[in-house]
Write a structure and sequence with these properties.
Elements (H helix, E strand, L loop, with lengths): L1 H22 L6 H12 L6 H18 L1 H17 L5 H31 L3 H17 L14 H13 L7 H11 L4 H22 L1 H5 L3 H4 L1 H28 L3 H17 L1
Helix pairs in contact: 1-2, 1-12, 2-6, 3-9, 3-12, 4-5, 5-7, 5-9, 6-13, 7-8, 8-9
Keywords: Antibiotic resistance, Cell membrane, Cell shape, Cell wall biogenesis/degradation, Hydrolase, Membrane, Peptidoglycan synthesis, Transmembrane, Transmembrane helix
Organism: Oceanobacillus sojae
Function: Catalyzes the dephosphorylation of undecaprenyl diphosphate (UPP). Confers resistance to bacitracin.
């Protein structure tokens, strides 16, 4: 029985890792889907330490995909600051806007993140917020912005940052919220996508660093290290391919499909969970 129980535990965490990986980059809320799957399969992976662990796997996959942009921004910021190269000012300002947009969610996360996560982790909340996500995606489905990387402003960064802070609520997709906000301020789809996922990096990395003490003292880590590792690997692989898929969808402007999906899942959650 122990062997079967251990196998079932591994399968459960494999499912959680795949769900995290697939739903993190697409605008349907990974945190909301983890809550739904836990409820459906009665998985006791409670608390933020597991979510942060698999979220870090998704972060590594995002960084792998955007590695060229990351290196370019770092190198050009160095050139602008220390070599006075004015030709790379747009990349330097892009980094500044990412920093500005990170501040609101950083403040809210530090002050209220744990409390909000616990208070709003019910399935009813997830169902309602998925419907809100659906409405937001529907509103921007046909927008065609003109702003590219070099056309952004401090106001744009503040708006996107404030909207991103709402995504601490389970069921509100972080990628969805930031892409919606980016497109509403006039960014082109490609710019909105890049800004959203490069913005994800400091937010996720900061969260992981701040929560290292909590992860270290989590008693589940001592006896669930193998399921956690399985979930980590699954989340990394699933995020990589899901983001590649989503990038292709964004190029063809099919965001309404995610709106339909969020409506269906949101209604089903409210009815049955």
């Amino acid at each position: 029985m122990d062997a079967l129980s251990n196998l079932w535990t591994l399968i459960q965490y494999l499912i959680l890792g795949v769900v995290q990986g697939v739903t993190e980059p697409i605008p349907v809320s990974s945190s909301g889907h983890l809550i739904i799957v836990r409820e459906l399969f009665n998985i006791e992976a409670r608390g933020l330490s597991f979510e942060i662990f698999v979220n870090f796997a998704s972060l590594l996959a995002v960084m792998l995909i955007y590695r060229k942009d990351i290196v370019r921004l770092i190198v050009n910021t160095w050139k602008f600051l220390f070599k006075g190269d004015k030709t790379v000012k747009s990349d330097f300002m892009f980094v500044i806007y990412l920093v500005i947009a990170t501040i609101p969610v950083g403040v809210i996360g530090v002050l209220f993140g744990d409390a909000l996560g616990e208070a709003l982790s019910g399935t009813n909340v997830v169902g309602i917020t998925l419907l809100i996500t659906a409405l937001s995606l529907w509103i921007i489905r046909n927008l065609r912005g003109r702003k590219q990387d070099g056309d952004l402003s401090t106001k744009d960064a503040i708006i996107v940052g404030l909207v991103q802070s709402i995504a601490v609520t389970p069921g509100i997709s972080r990628s969805g919220a930031t892409i919606v906000a980016s497109m509403l301020v006039g960014m082109k789809k490609e710019t909105a996508l890049r800004f959203s996922f490069l913005l994800y990096i400091p937010v996720s990395l900061g969260t992981a660093i701040l929560e290292i003490p909590e992860i270290a003292k989590d008693p589940a880590m001592s006896y669930l290290w193998a399921p956690y590792l399985v979930a980590f690997i699954a989340a990394f692989i699933a995020t990589y391919f899901a983001l590649k898929w989503f990038m292709n969808i964004m190029r063809h402007g099919k965001l309404e499909y995610f709106a339909y999906y969020c409506v269906v899942v949101g209604i089903l959650v409210l009815i049955f969970l």
